[in-house]
């Protein structure tokens, strides 16, 4: 049997011991030997994954949870040290949407097949530290909303908690601009997405030009400067399901520099504030597809 190391997040609201045992049973049923990891803190999770990646033969590590769990795992593994798989069990599961995973059973069947592709990640550096992201970095309005999400509302409303936080930020709007520069191009805007994936907030395609397997990040200034513009943009995105991002441009191999004083989020978790720089790490590790 092939060994797979299964990382759960017991502190997540979507976790339960019953769900964990069900997933382990399903993995055994397809001929795998799952070894569960149940870290109680973020530090424990990162240490456990880092230790696994020291093995002579790169391990297969399965992140069970939402996008935050996936982000913890990619920030714990050095480049070229492991194969990553995911089983969605969270609020938004944008990563699962990006891969076209329809259900937990679909994810398990993909893990059993073991088809892999090398994927890229972004890496942000600021006074908050250095941290990777696999989906997107948001600077400005969406990061302000992420920072304003209350845990009690998230437990009660799920994704609706982000909408509520966004409405609160509209009442306390930040008019300051940021400047993004990359490869000779410069833009001034209120808010910005640096995308490594096309999906955002679940089923919505915010930057269709982006992709996990592309050798570049997409820089997408958002087309609003005030709260009414943001509300109109968000409503249009929800109704249409996608946005063309006409002002987006590719980073190529160049470092992205963002100046100004605006909050930052990486894969849906707050990461201090700008200024910051972002670079691409191509062929970071293998991803089960």
UniProtKB/TrEMBL annotation:
SMART domains: DAGKc. Residues 51-129 form the DAGKc domain. InterPro entries: ATP-NAD_kinase_N, Diacylglycerol_kinase_cat_dom, Lipid_Phosphate_FormReg, NAD/diacylglycerol_kinase_sf, YegS/DAGK_C. Gene3D superfamilies: 2.60.200.40, Probable inorganic polyphosphate/atp-NAD kinase, domain 1. GO terms for cellular component: plasma membrane. Keywords: ATP-binding, Kinase, Nucleotide-binding, Transferase. One of its GO terms (molecular function) is kinase activity. This is Diacylglycerol kinase family enzyme. It comes from Trichlorobacter thiogenes. The lineage of its organism: Bacteria, Pseudomonadati, Thermodesulfobacteriota, Desulfuromonadia, Geobacterales.
